[in-house]
Structure formats: structure tokens, C-alpha cells
Amino acid sequence: MGIIIDDRRVVIQPLNKCRYKGKVAAMDMLRLDLLHPTISGNKWYKLRLNLGYAIEKGFKTIVTFGGAFSNHLAATAFAARQFGLQSVGIVRGSFDTLTPTLQQCRENGMELIFVTHDDYRNKHQPGWAENLVAHFDEILIIPEGGANERGRAGAGLIDRFVRSSYTHVALSVGTGTTLAGLRLKLNPLQHLLGFVPMKQSTEQRQHIIGHLPSEQPENWTLFNDTRFGGFGKWNDELLHFMNSFYEDNKIPLDIVYTSKMMYNLEQMLTDNYFSTFHKILCIHSGGLQGNVSVQEQLIYK
């Protein structure tokens, strides 16, 4: 498989000390957003082994799942096109006007199949997705968010950037695939903090638990969105935070995932959740194309 992503672009950037005011010893950001404008952040790592498998086994069509703001769908559409594969996205909901993310998927050749929220809950049922895409040739189905063994193994490769001196690693959680993959690879003493941009995290928690050894200490914690209304929701307070964060660090955050993670981390610092000797690495999971709908209110592109 040809390499289209150069992870030598990735850097660890120390955050401006004014953001954590001596509450911890260090707070850095792993800039996975620098990998690529579309296949950025953890999306590439969850896809790379799945794409390699598809090419090795001669599949012609990648089928996967997502919602209106799915970075996974956008990344899959672009990556499949680069490798000469067809792509199909089974999308939760219906839309009179496509979101910018779904429009980008279509521009990269992805065929979109829209299903109701109730039908979408059947995505794990045997044969359900296969019936929807039976007219395509040689299909490989990748679960939502790359949530399979190859996706978790690929996400685990992010561990190469995580120095052992970090006591905490913070990341946004969609399906839980990246957290599970990293938990399998990182030092057990390093605590993972997963920030879920939904009101509940039951599904993510079950996914993570189901793919970790039962004897492994549960050295990870999930935090829900309790301030901004749930997935894909935001308000002026969050937009102000994103602009302020950029002014201090020159790091763009996305409206759906990383901005909420950083907002909540800073609230935890204010509440003295951490000790002054702790060192935190925050993983930027990319997805900046999700900012198109609020671009005029941001001071960066």
C-alpha cells in the first residue's frame, strides 16, 4: 500500500503556560491535526490497517457508517479515492441540505445512503448493511469510527508519540476505538482521560471494556458533555473559548471534539482535579473541516 500520510509532520507543542497557571507541571498537545487536511488526527490511524487489508484481499468497495458531522466518513471517502476504491457511507438521518462534511464526502466520490435513526440502530445486525449495499462489488464493511480490531491496532500506533513522562493522556472519544487501542499499548501507569461530546457515554464505555483484558486495571476515565447540549452542539461560550485558545497557542480546535475536550480540561484545572506534578498530553484528533459552519465566527481557518 502506498503511503499518502507522512507522520513526520506531527509535533508535540507545549501549551502556553497562561492556560494552566502552574496547576500542573506541563500541558502539551500532540498535533495529529497536522497530518493531513482531510485524513487528520486519529482517523488515519484507524483507517490505515483497514485500507491495507482491503487492498491486500482485493476488495473494491469500502462501506462504513456515520452521521452528519462524521470526520470518519470524510476521511474514508478521501482515502478510498486515493487508493482507487469505491466508498459508500450509510448515514444516520436525512437532510434537505447536506452538511459541509457530507458534501465533502460526496465530492470525494462517496455514495451516501440515508437511513432513519431507528434503522441506523440495526447497523450491527448480521446482514443489515449487506442488504443495503448488495449491488456493489467486493465490499469490505468498516464499522463506524473504524471500530474493529484493525482500527484499534492502528490507533495503538499513536503510542509512538507518547513519552513515558506523561502522567495523563487526554483524548476525545467518539466510538472509543482510539482509547481502547491506546490503553492496550501505553504504560499502565499513564491515566487516559476520554472526553465524550455526547450527553451519555454508555455505548463508548461498553465498547472499551469489551476490548480490554479483564485483568487490566481500569486506568481510564470518561467525561460527558454536560455544558454544550450534546453531540454537534455549541454556543457562543465555546466559540469564544476556541478563539481565545488560538490567540494563546496558535492551535486551531474543531467545534465538535477537541474544543470541548480542552474546555473541560481547563475547567478541571480550575477545580484542582490534577496535582502540580502531573504532566498532561492532549491529543488533537483533527476534524477541522467541521468548522465550516462557524467559520465566520472564528479568527482562524
Overview features:
33% helix, alpha/beta, Rossmann fold, 301 residues, 10 helices
Notes on the structure:
With 301 residues, this protein is of the alpha/beta class. The chain folds into 2 domains: 7-40 and 151-297, 3-Layer(aba) Sandwich (Rossmann fold); 42-146, Rossmann fold. Helix content is 33%, strand content 18%. It contains 10 helices and 10 strands.
Write a concise synopsis of the structure shown.
This protein is an alpha/beta fold and 301 residues long. Helices cover 33% and strands 18% of the residues. It folds into 2 domains: 7-40 and 151-297, Rossmann fold; 42-146, Rossmann fold, CATH 3.40.50.
